[in-house]
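Fold it.
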Amino acid sequence: MTDRNDLIQELLESIRTASDAGPPTERFCRELKTPPTALLAIGKAAASMARAAGALPEGVPTKALVITTPPQPTDLAQNIEIAIGDHPIPSDRNLIASTKALEFVQSLSQSDHLLVLLSGGGSALLTLPAPPLTLNDCSRVAEALMRAGCPIQELNAVRKHTEQLKGGRLAQACAANMTTVACVSDVIGDSIETIASGPFAPDSTTYADALDTLSRYNCLCISPPLTEYLREGTAGKHAETLSHDSPGTNHTIILSNNHAVEAAAAPLHARNYSPKIINSYTGEARNLGRLVAESLKSHDSVVIGGEPTVSGISPGSIGGPVQEAVLAAALSLENTHPDWLVFGIATDGIDGPTPAAGAALDPATLKRIHNPAEALRTHNTHNALQEANTLITTGPTGTNINDVIVALRR
């Protein structure tokens, strides 16, 4: 495809612009009827959302706390306190940041109106284990579940029942009578109880659900104290998560994966393609690759948004769900069409535990990979795509609205 590089750049720019949490946050702030007196921003997009909160009629509230991932923002209002945590595996910095969040909401008065700006990454950032559990207990179990391909909803059920702030527990600790939550959704279906593990939202899962998740993914022995804690909770020895809406708390989704999908389709329409749009994909990344190839049998292009996963990763293999989906699609297309392009991107700029955001492959670049089928089988896709010099690296984007896969044929 003669315009391959131009199209890749257009796709990147279009998706990046659509994923920016700043503009929708600014619009939301301008439309608020009651000025907030306190601001709490949590997640990968916390800095850009807090920056956009400057559009509030009264400006950024005097009481303000931002909890986000590195790098530390340097251009926020001077009155905003900043706490940095790590993602996806929490560290001691996350414990400090989470304690600050708890103390912040506890310090408010009943007359306060708390504006919460919530985005992807909040689950890891708000890590505060329930005593007597430790950070090591929670981290080891979360990492094992992620490597096993556990869906985010099930992973969060475990987090909510072994920690102090998730599953509406931060709402229970909050002294303010009015809380407004603006969400940048990083979960398919935009469930408020799943975004950042729903710190201000009611939770439909139970201790029994969390214990069942550990059992189904063979993680009961990863941390005996954590497993025992869940068993105690199932027996009624620990309080359940928030089961109903907290009075005075309202959630609004202001940005989601659908916006990225629409943006990815725009450059294709401009080139007279008629893409098939598939929203809300969840499941194995290699199956997503097969879906791409199947869709191109009857359409000239396809745009798929969602949250693919990779399960059964062996130690020593490195890759991400987007990279795996791109390679799987390329292998499925290899003997089907003579001219095609597959492009995939994680909107947060970090695909799995790799420095790449995604990748792009066509027939020529696929040939550069030695034994791509083996790379796919072993989930060692990052090294294979690096060999082909076809990785896409953006660095952390400061937002997260899941992943987008684009493919087209001629």
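The two ends are 8 Å apart (CA to CA).
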